[in-house]
């Protein structure tokens, strides 16, 4: 079983101490990426629920230890260079967030504290989220003391100096100052800062007592000198209070404990990330509109990195001052070269499903699979198609379908509604729609793409505007062997498109002229056509016309037969591999999966199931369905969906697997030469089934395998890593290495004299190289001498 | 993947008009490009033009016969409306013209049977009266010709079925009278290689090759075209002739005794005239390719490549065509029509072609420009010292750091980039390209700003929009958006339109064009109603 497609941006990532590794929480594991190549190196596996935070213990470059917390209620301590778990603490309560202040701060304090390491955790005790303290060095139990209860999940934010940590709670900020000497009973002092809007994010200044917070309206508030009264327990504090009472406290609300509060406003939507630069001179902020703003803290001057294209979530500085990373909501982690503000590398996860599902009736968020090369093509929010390698678990490339820039705050007016790949993966069809404004200017366009054989990238070959007039396209299907496609529309007709093959073979000018053109148009009683498919040999085209299936000869465009009737409109059709059976899926009040025999033109058998996806194996009569279970069954099946594997001749399923998040999921059989990629217990598997769920996490498994053998991937790309230069060497290049031994050897050689054997054999015996080596040197020196004499 | 996936970052997408479907077949072969590179101008207000001929000598003026007048035009003049010389001393309609090989004399025959010779080399005054009046034909003369290699003789023929050869210097009576045709003789041509042979074509379907040296009224070769012969022309090599008659043009090999080589049946009505055209720069004979240009009453001019036996270009004119001529320098092509318009096609000779000729001619005189052998050494006293090296060209091994190319954005793109939607719409409406307007409108729709823009247009700009709508809202490619938009505009701006007379006029025009379109659609539907049962029946079989 191969899992992949995890969310990389569920919680903030972390850099290793040397800046070469990025630790990313990916579901139940922590994946470690190389920051120079952006490829995954290893992963920390062990947690049984999603990992919520990862904290790298600051130390010298060599030590690679980290703490992780998870919803499974454990805190674990890892050596991630190996990688292996060192220690495991069971808190017994789901942990959402954990900060460990003890490791931060200046070094002399550190020494004193390392004896006893405390962590502050946000845990759930069954009723509410509580912030508690626990000792990590000699752990017995979670501290009884509850610092604060919140209703929602709120991440703990710690100041880089390790003196404060804080939390946002609706319109308030709570900030605690850590006690000077940590113990189980020491209580942190707390202040609260108020604001009129809901606060979304906060950040602490690295050195000063300054905290910045962003709110939902896009404002950034900066409180300077917070906690002057409460945290600084000087004797003269009373005087200061009286002074402060007299003067106006520069925008600080109510009786909040801060010296001044200023507000900056640039973001038009809510602020999602705030981060101070390590020297405290700059503040990074980012929001829903996908623009990273760099504020100069003193003057308020701004610099921008625009058009990142997705809401920004986290900004992490690496120990190397020239490198930092941004996590984006579209599951991408971008490496940023800091001074020039440019993106140099991306860790690309599978893009999340589109947020606007209900844009129109033709919209389908379904992914398309390239079965031979193991790629999945998914629609992205920025009007493109992302190709994601299922076996390598990384994004391969993206194709921009609509030539538009995507702004996350914009209203959705353009969408890629459909993507389909041909069986051999060489042709892609996409449908995009433009929504009309008050009934004016809507447009549907169909695009055909060809795979460039050299670069393995798709490029557009033909654009067809309004292929079915103003009706939306419901499905595209490709001929299994020829360059032929069919598109069906809700307007009640389908069109067969062909690409002239003769043109392709010729070089030069003719290639320019190749393109897809309409070969035939068909309709059946003007009924809306919602699905179309070709049979495995391509001789029959099946098109679903409302509740019946029409069978056509694709070449002559002749209606051959009309099959049966289902109670509700058919939304999906598939031939069961090479067999004579055709599957139809209908949704609605009476959902149904029907299997039709093509030889008898009657229904063979049917199930009353809500089917989400159907896939048939190409070379056998097996097919798999993904069925949504009704709500009452969820408990029994441990999930809301079930995958059933059938042989088309037999209504009894061959195998079944229960899955979660089945809504919006997809299924596909992968085939082809997988020997290099996937191995099951030493023997290669011929057929694999991939299931991708509604959140676009996927799992690849062998459906015929009863015992659930482990499917492991042999990764080839781990060795590809190159060592990047950073710090001094990135600016000035590598220093020449001193090799003391080499120097010595050179000096020995240089003293070759009239009698080389004397110098070669001088020295104490334990310094001498082995005799076999000396012998050749000795002989060489003799030869040289002769040559010199001859001259 | 290792390389940055984030390619969308600094990209701007300028709005682009929708793509047009590419024609499946390439209609622009280099040859048809050549023939359509002749830019047409018209000479109007004449009466039907039965004959056109170019002077063989530079600058190749051409003479046109129309009614009882002959006009001589210089194609270099611009505009072409007024002739350089007009000859009016005819009593009847002029039927045929021919220049002498040096271009100084022009022979013309008219329907009264008179053949006249004019001096056209000496300006318009000299040409007023004829040098010679050759009267012998009793019926209308249809064909007059100066042989290409003969300066002294003129050939003429006419409705009396006689072919006469005149000695112009001797005057009044013909040297020779050739009887052989049994019907009107309409056309003829002289051999380009032999001064003594010529051909004539007649309505008795035959084309006859005559040899003046024999002179016994017996043609050397005779071929039967099968239709009344309207025109006949020698091909440049002199071994072949092309004859036009009926709807076909036929090619005959004279050397093998009059064998039919091929026949071109491209025209739908009678082919009236032929001439030999040439593709090529003119100076290099080997590159020249000869074509036969034929025009017919169906209004088509066709270019026939007789070596590959293909029609390589075809062009339609809105009138029956009577005559065609092609200038020897390949710059001009003239076509005369029956309704009195001469279509003059002029081609611009490319720079390099002209240059090539010039350089050849002046090669002898060319002097190489002086070269600065010493490099000037700048001193710090000179201000250019401080700019030295800025214009330095990179040498081969240099690593170049290019300045990133700035994408050129058009006015409306710039405005759209700055979210000045209204101004963008106006700026593109002021432009000429309707495709761009549509692209901007679509972009505004996807920004949900079109309606706001329309409602904010002031009266002047609204007029602009209405003019645009009237022009293009019935064009099928644009109507999907524009029809809806027109309705919205009327709904939203009804008050302003009521208030202004100018706007109301535009609305009336808009209404008219839409009514027209509706009518067209109705008639199309009627046709569809007629056709679809037929198709059904055809489909059943």
From TrEMBL, chain A:
From the Swiss-Prot or TrEMBL record, give the protein name. WD repeat-containing protein 75 second beta-propeller domain-containing protein
Indicate where this protein is primarily found. nucleus
Q: Where are the WD repeats?
A: 44-88, 192-223, 264-305
Sorted alphabetically, the keyword list is: Nucleus, Repeat, Ribosome biogenesis, rRNA processing, WD repeat
Q: Where in the cell is it found?
A: Nucleus, Nucleolus
Source domain of life is Eukaryota
WD repeat-containing protein 75 second beta-propeller domain residues? 384-632
Determine if Glycoprotein is one of this entry's keywords: no
- Pfam families (alphabetical): Beta-prop_WDR75_1st (PF23869), Beta-prop_WDR75_2nd (PF23769)
SUPFAM superfamilies, sorted: Quinoprotein alcohol dehydrogenase-like, WD40 repeat-like
Which PANTHER family does this entry report, sorted A to Z? TRANSDUCIN FAMILY PROTEIN / WD-40 REPEAT FAMILY PROTEIN-RELATED, TRANSDUCIN FAMILY PROTEIN _ WD-40 REPEAT FAMILY PROTEIN-RELATED
Automatic annotation (TrEMBL), chain B:
Q: Where is this region: Disordered?
A: 1-33
Q: What is the lineage of its organism?
A: Eukaryota, Viridiplantae, Streptophyta, Embryophyta, Tracheophyta
- WD repeat extents: 134-176, 178-220
- Polar residues: compositionally biased ranges: 1-11, 24-33
Please list the residue ranges annotated as the U3 small nucleolar RNA-associated protein 15 C-terminal domain: 392-534
Gene3D superfamilies reported in the protein's UniProt record: YVTN repeat-like/Quinoprotein amine dehydrogenase
Q: Which PANTHER family does the protein's record reference? A: U3 SMALL NUCLEOLAR RNA-ASSOCIATED PROTEIN 15 HOMOLOG, UTP15 U3 SMALL NUCLEOLAR RNA-ASSOCIATED PROTEIN 15 FAMILY MEMBER
Report the protein name in the record.
Answer: U3 small nucleolar RNA-associated protein 15 C-terminal domain-containing protein
Domain of life of the source: Eukaryota
Q: What is its main location?
A: nucleus
Alphabetical UniProt keywords: Nucleus, Repeat, rRNA processing, WD repeat
Q: Name one GO cellular component term.
A: nucleolus
Where is this protein found?
Nucleus, Nucleolus
């Amino acid at each position: 079983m191969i899992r992949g497609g995890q969310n990389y941006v569920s919680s903030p990532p972390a850099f290793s101490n040397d800046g070469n590794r990025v630790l990313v929480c990916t579901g139940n594991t922590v994946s470690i990426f190389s920051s120079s190549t952006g490829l995954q190196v290893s992963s920390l596996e062990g947690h049984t629920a999603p990992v919520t935070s990862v904290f790298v213990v600051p130390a010298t470059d060599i030590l690679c230890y980290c703490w992780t917390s998870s919803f499974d209620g454990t805190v674990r301590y890892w050596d991630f260079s190996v990688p292996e778990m060192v220690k495991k603490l069971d808190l017994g309560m789901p942990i959402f967030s954990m900060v460990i202040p003890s490791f931060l701060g200046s070094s002399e304090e550190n020494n004193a504290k390392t004896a006893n390491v405390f962590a502050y955790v946000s845990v759930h005790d069954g009723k509410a989220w509580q912030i508690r303290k626990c000792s990590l060095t000699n752990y017995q139990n979670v501290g009884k003391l509850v610092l604060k209860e919140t209703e929602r999940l709120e991440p703990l934010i710690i100041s880089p100096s390790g003196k404060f940590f804080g939390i946002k709670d609706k319109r308030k900020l709570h900030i605690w100052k850590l006690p000077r000497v940590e113990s189980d009973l020491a209580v942190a002092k707390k202040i609260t800062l108020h604001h009129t809007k809901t606060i979304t994010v906060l950040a602490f200044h690295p050195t000063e007592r300054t905290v910045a917070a962003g709110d939902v309206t896009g404002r950034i508030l900066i409180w300077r000198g917070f906690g002057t009264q409460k945290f600084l327990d000087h004797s003269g504090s009373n005087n200061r209070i009286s002074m402060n009472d007299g003067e106006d406290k520069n925008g600080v609300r109510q009786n909040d404990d801060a010296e001044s509060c200023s507000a900056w406003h640039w973001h038009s939507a809510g602020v999602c990330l705030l981060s101070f630069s390590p020297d405290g001179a700059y503040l990074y902020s980012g929001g829903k509109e996908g623009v990273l703003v760099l504020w100069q803290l003193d003057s308020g001057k701004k610099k921008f990195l625009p058009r990142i294209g997705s809401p920004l979530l986290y900004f992490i500085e690496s120990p190397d001052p020239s490198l930092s990373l941004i996590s984006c909501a579209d599951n991408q982690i971008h490496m940023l070269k800091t001074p020039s503000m440019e993106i140099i590398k991306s860790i690309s996860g599978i893009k999340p499903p589109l947020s606007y599902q209900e844009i129109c009736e033709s919209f389908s968020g379904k992914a398309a699979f390239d079965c031979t090369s193991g790629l999945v093509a998914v629609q992205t929010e920025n009007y493109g198609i992302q190709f994601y390698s299922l076996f390598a678990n990384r994004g391969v490339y993206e194709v921009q379908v609509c030539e538009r820039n995507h702004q996350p705050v914009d209203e959705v007016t353009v969408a890629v509604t459909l993507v389909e790949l041909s069986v051999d993966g060489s042709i892609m069809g996409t449908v995009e729609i433009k929504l009309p404004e008050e009934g004016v200017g809507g447009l549907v366009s169909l695009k055909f793409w060809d795979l460039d054989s050299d670069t393995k990238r798709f490029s557009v070959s033909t654009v067809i505007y309004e292929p079915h007039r103003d009706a939306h396209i419901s499905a595209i299907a490709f001929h299994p062997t020829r360059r032929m496609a069919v598109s069906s529309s809700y307007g009640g007709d389908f069109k067969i498109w062909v690409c002239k093959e003769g043109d392709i073979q010729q070089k030069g000018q003719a290639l320019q002229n190749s393109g897809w053109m309409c070969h035939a148009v068909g309709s059946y009683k003007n009924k809306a056509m919602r699905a179309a498919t070709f049979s495995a040999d391509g001789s029959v085209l099946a098109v679903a016309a409302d509740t019946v299936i029409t069978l056509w000869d694709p070449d002559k465009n002749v209606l051959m037969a009309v099959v049966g009737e289902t109670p509700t409109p058919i939304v999906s059709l598939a031939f069961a591999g090479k067999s004579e059976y055709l599957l139809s899926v209908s949704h609605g009040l009476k959902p149904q999966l029907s299997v039709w025999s093509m030889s008898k033109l009657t229904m063979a058998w049917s199930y009353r199931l809500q089917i989400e996806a159907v896939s048939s194996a190409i070379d056998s009569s097996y097919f798999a369905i993904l069925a949504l279970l009704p709500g009452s069954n969820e408990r029994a099946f441990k999930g809301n969906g079930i995958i059933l594997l059938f042989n088309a001749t037999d209504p009894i399923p061959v195998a079944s697997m229960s899955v979660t998040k089945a809504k919006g999921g997809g299924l596909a059989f992968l085939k082809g030469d997988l020997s290099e990629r996937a191995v099951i217990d030493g023997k290669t598997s011929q057929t694999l089934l991939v299931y991708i769920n509604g959140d676009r996490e996927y799992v690849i498994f062998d459906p015929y395998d009863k015992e659930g053998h482990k499917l492991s991937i042999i990764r080839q790309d781990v060795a590809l890593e190159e060592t990047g230069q950073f710090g001094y060497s990135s600016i000035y290049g590598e220093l020449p290495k001193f090799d003391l031994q080499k120097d010595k050897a050179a000096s020995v050689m240089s003293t070759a004299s009239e009698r080389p054997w004397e110098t070669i054999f001088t020295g104490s015996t334990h310094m001498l190289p082995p005799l076999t080596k000396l012998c050749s040197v000795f002989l060489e020196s003799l030869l040289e001498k002769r040559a010199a004499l001859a001259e | 993947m290792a390389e940055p996936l984030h390619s969308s970052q600094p990209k701007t997408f300028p709005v682009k008009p929708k793509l047009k479907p590419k024609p499946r077949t390439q209609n622009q072969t280099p040859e048809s490009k050549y023939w359509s590179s002749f830019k047409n101008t018209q000479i109007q207000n004449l009466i039907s033009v039965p004959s056109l001929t170019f002077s063989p000598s530079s600058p190749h003026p051409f003479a046109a016969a129309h009614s009882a007048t002959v006009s001589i035009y210089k194609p270099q003049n611009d505009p072409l409306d007024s002739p350089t010389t007009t000859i009016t001393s005819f009593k009847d309609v002029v039927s045929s013209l021919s220049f002498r090989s040096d271009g100084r004399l022009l022979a013309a025959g008219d329907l009264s049977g008179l053949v006249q010779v004019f001096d056209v080399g000496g300006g318009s005054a000299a040409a007023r009266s004829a040098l010679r009046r050759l009267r012998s034909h009793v019926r209308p003369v249809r064909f007059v010709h100066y042989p290409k290699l003969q300066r002294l003789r003129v050939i003429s023929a006419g409705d009396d079925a006689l072919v006469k050869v005149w000695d112009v210097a001797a005057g009044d009576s013909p040297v020779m009278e050739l009887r052989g045709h049994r019907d009107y003789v309409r056309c003829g041509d002289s051999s380009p290689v032999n001064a003594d042979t010529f051909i004539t074509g007649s309505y008795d379907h035959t084309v006859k090759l005559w040899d003046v040296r024999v002179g016994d009224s017996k043609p050397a070769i005779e071929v039967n075209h099968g239709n009344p012969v309207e025109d006949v022309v020698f091909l440049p090599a002199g071994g072949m002739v092309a004859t036009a008659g009926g709807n076909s043009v036929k090619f005959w090999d004279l050397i093998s005794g009059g064998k039919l080589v091929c026949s071109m049946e491209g025209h739908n009505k009678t082919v009236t005239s032929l001439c030999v055209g040439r593709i090529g720069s003119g100076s290099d004979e080997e590159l020249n390719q000869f074509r036969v240009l034929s025009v017919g009453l169906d209004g088509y001019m066709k270019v026939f490549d007789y070596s590959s036996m293909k029609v390589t270009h075809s062009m339609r004119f809105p009138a029956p065509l009577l005559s065609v001529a092609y200038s020897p320098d390949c710059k001009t092509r003239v076509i005369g029509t029956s309704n009195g318009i001469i279509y003059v096609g002029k081609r611009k000779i490319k720079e390099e072609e002209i240059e090539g000729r010039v350089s050849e001619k002046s090669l002898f005189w060319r002097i190489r420009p002086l070269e600065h052998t010493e490099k000037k050494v700048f001193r710090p006293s000179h201000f250019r010292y401080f700019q030295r090296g800025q214009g330095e060209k990179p040498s081969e091994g240099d690593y170049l750091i290019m300045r990133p190319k700035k994408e050129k954005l058009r006015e409306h793109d710039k405005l759209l980039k700055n979210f000045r939607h209204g101004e963008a719409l106006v700026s593109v409406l002021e432009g000429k390209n309707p495709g761009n307007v549509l692209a901007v409108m679509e972009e505004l729709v996807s920004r949900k700003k079109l309606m706001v823009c329309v409602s904010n247009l002031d009266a002047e700009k609204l007029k602009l929009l209405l003019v645009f709508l009237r022009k293009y809202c019935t064009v099928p490619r644009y109507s999907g958006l524009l029809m809806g938009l027109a309705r919205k505009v009327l709904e939203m701006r009804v008050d302003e339109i009521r208030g202004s007379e100018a706007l109301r006029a535009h609305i009336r025009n808009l209404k008219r064009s839409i009514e027209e379109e509706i009518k067209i659609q109705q008639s199309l539907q009627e046709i569809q109603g007629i056709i679809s049962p037929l198709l059904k029946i055809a489909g059943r079989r």
